Amino acid sequence: MGNAVSSLAAKAQRVVSDVLALLHRNNHISLFVPLVNIPMSPDTRPRRYRLRITGTAVQAFKAWDALSKLAEAAAQTYLSIDVVAEQPAGFDQVWVRNAVLEPLKEANIQVEARPEE
108 in helix, strand or coil? Predict the structure, then answer.
């Protein structure tokens, strides 16, 4: 039993050491990229990639080029975007409807919106 625990601890340490963690204080983004190689035969190609991108609006807009390349190479691409916008003075609800919600609906984009405190 002791050897099994030691082996498991060694594997866990290897996995932890193979994870790259980038923390950007001012950008409010944390990126954890696993560097572990999943064994695959040379003929096996992954059929699906799932990405989760977290960052500021500026960073997200910079990611569109890479995402469009992935979408061009894929047979189907689905996006789910969660946006949190904050304004200390509060948002004008008429402006939100006209400038944000209506254009999204006119583009046939499913949108759920809810004002928070």
Answer: coil
* Domain positions in the chain: 10-35+48-106
Please list, in sequence order, all residues whose beta carbon lies within 8 angstroms of the beta carbon of residue 47, skipping any fewer than 6 positions away. none
In the prediction, which pLDDT does 40 show? 62
Burial class (CB in 10 A: 0-12, 13-18, 19+), 51: exposed
4, containing H or E segment: helix 2-17
This prediction has a pTM of 0.54
Share of the chain above pLDDT 70, in %: 64
For the CA atoms of 42, 79, 63, 100, what is the dihedral angle to 10 degrees?
Answer: 170
The position carrying tokens 């609800």 is 93
